[in-house]
Amino acid sequence: xxxxxxxxxxxxxxxxxxxxxxxxxxxxxxxxxxxxxxxxxxxxxxxxxxxxxxxxxxxxxxxxxxxxxxxxxxxxxxxxxxxxxxxxxxxxxxxxxxxxxxxxxxxxxxxxxxxxxxxxxxxxxxxxxxxxxxxxxxxxxxx
Length: 143
Hints:
mainly alpha
């Protein structure tokens, strides 16, 4: 005997829309992407016109900071598409902590923004799970 509840065709499952993205996830991904871009712009500006000639710019710090900001933007994109909850939570928490260590008001502002993003991502774990379940409905969904 065929169970009607389990006989959903692949076509019907393919028509299932993805779960609605929470506004907090939209805000968190926008914060991460924009903050990464702004800080990359600040790095480029500091390289073009150094703010304090007495303090030289260390190339290793520039490379590390550039990689960190590229990762920030990448995590924002990953969060927007509902993937990588655990790495995103860990990276954003680290970014918030690094922002707290900064000696300026700008660093504190970034820490507050990253803290908001952390809370938004952490509290919306069920949406990440729903997105994962939605992607598993059909193999065509992965395209």
